[in-house]
Amino acid sequence: MIRPLYTLAVIGAQPLLRRKLRRRGAAEPGYLQHVDERFGRYEDGAEPGALWIHAVSLGETRAAAILIAQLRALQPGIRILLTHGTATGRAEGERLLRDGDRQAWLPWDTPKAVRAFLNHFRPSAGVLMETEVWPNLVAVCRQRGVPLALANARLSQKSLAQARQLAFLSRPAYSSLTAVWAQTEGDARRLTRAGATVQGVFGNLKFDATPDAQQLAQGRRWREGLHRPVVMFASSREGEEAEFFRLAQAMRGSDAQWLVVPRHPQRFAEVAALAASQGLSVSRRSAWGEAPARADVWIGDSLGEMALYYGLADVALLGGSFEKLGGQNLIEAAACGCPVVMGPHTFNFAEASRLAEEAGAALRVASMEEGMRSAVELAGNRERHTGAVRAGLAFAEAHQGAARRTAEAILELSTEPGR
């Protein structure tokens, strides 16, 4: 009885959702493309039997890229249907497509739209990346006999509390998944409490990412020519940058070069303007020629160049960890040999953050001011910095293997007799 009421609420909210798309589309035109797909309406035909992978946004799509590469290695010629919920995720996902692959928006969570989606694409199986569990999506897949797995699955304590408040919806959804493969033992325990049956703890796919060697080398060449420490604020979030820029202004005597790479690309211009409002000179990556221009603050306003930025930086502050936002993932920084300074709030990636700190690849601080000063100090101490770089590389290498384990489980799921 509860799910039909939920469905009515989703249907009733669709005018608001359309309005939200129009508003977001003003800044990101990708939201205005293929809108009918969100209602299960499609222009072109589709060949049945593709493996469907849902990666809602940019981070999940980058994890999906690692998984897709492993799937192609194990089963050349596999066809992928890639779905998303955000414009940045879809733009990143487009780069992963090969002949025979398809891409679409995930339909809004009504039985009618989900049925239309399944009727049109007829996937062999579905894989939801990390956290995207929707009541009607799971229920209709179960009704249709489409195996649906949650891969690279994570669930924070905060998200578990929210799921338990809505247990009448979330528990049936989690319990109806065909398979769940968790990142960590802690995630597995929380997912089990939410109602899921966890088949394995495979680790985090992002440990298997290989940083772009050319980008990394370019960033390091630029850094070597500077003769001053570069401190990066990686994947900064709204609510954090104002304090960062205020402190950067106060620390002008430190000789540090500040580099800010906002988490959300639609905020690039906003963050640059915020730095300028604090009296700081600004240079944006999109305006660089052969080398970065001199300025108080560099803004990394490009997509797909995180390896370049980590190569350019001596130390990275972890975005999302200085406000109660849960932190961003520090694995890519470690794999690039960039030591991390993180704030007190890393509940979204609690175990990875704890393990990185224990390994010496990351440093925990209590505030933004302490973080910025600690980052400058670490960058200037050659012995400590070299030790942290080595620790990060060893930490990243020690936790590899999730991609192969996950890909093998997916292929087994999608080829089970009767599927």
Describe the structure.
Residues 34-209 form the 3-deoxy-D-manno-octulosonic-acid transferase N-terminal domain. It is an enzyme of class 2 (transferase). Its EC number is 2.4.99.12. This protein is an alpha/beta fold. It folds into two domains: 23-203 and 401-414, 3-Deoxy-D-manno-octulosonic-acid transferase, N-terminal domain (Rossmann fold); 213-398, Glycogen Phosphorylase B (Rossmann fold, 3-Layer(aba) Sandwich). 47% of the residues lie in helices and 14% in strands. The chain has 18 helices and 14 strands. The protein has helices at 2-12, 14-27, 58-74, 87-94, 111-121, 135-144, 157-165, 167-175, 185-194, 213-224, 241-250, 268-277, 306-312, 331-335, 350-359, 368-380, 382-398, 402-414; strands spanning 51-54, 80-84, 102-105, 125-129, 148-153, 179-182, 200-201, 230-236, 257-262, 282-284, 297-299, 315-318, 340-342, 362-364. The strands form two sheets. It has a seven-stranded parallel beta sheet, with helices on both faces. α5 crosses α6 (135-144) and α10 runs parallel beside α13. The longest helix is centred in the first third of the chain and has 17 residues, at 58-74. The chain is globular. The model has no long low-confidence stretch (mean pLDDT 94).
Task: Give the helix tally.
Answer: 18
Total discrete domains: 2
CATH architecture of the largest domain: 3-Layer(aba) Sandwich
Strand content: 5-15%
Distance between the termini: 29 Å
The biggest sheet amounts to: 7 strands, parallel
**CATH top level assignment of the largest domain:** Alpha Beta
> What's the CATH superfamily of the largest domain, by name?
3-Deoxy-D-manno-octulosonic-acid transferase, N-terminal domain
Structural class: alpha/beta
The count of β-strands is 14
The gyration radius over C-alpha positions equals 22 Å
Q: What form results from the Cα inertia axes?
A: globular
Residue share in helices?
40-55%
**Rounded average pLDDT:** 94
Spatially, the strands of the biggest sheet line up as 3-2-1-4-5-6-7
* Quaternary: single chain
CATH topology of the largest domain: Rossmann fold
Low-confidence stretches: none
Family: Belongs to the glycosyltransferase group 1 family.
Catalytic activity: lipid IVA (E. coli) + CMP-3-deoxy-beta-D-manno-octulosonate = alpha-Kdo-(2->6)-lipid IVA (E. coli) + CMP + H(+)
Pfam families: Glycos_transf_N
Site (Transition state stabilizer): 130, 206
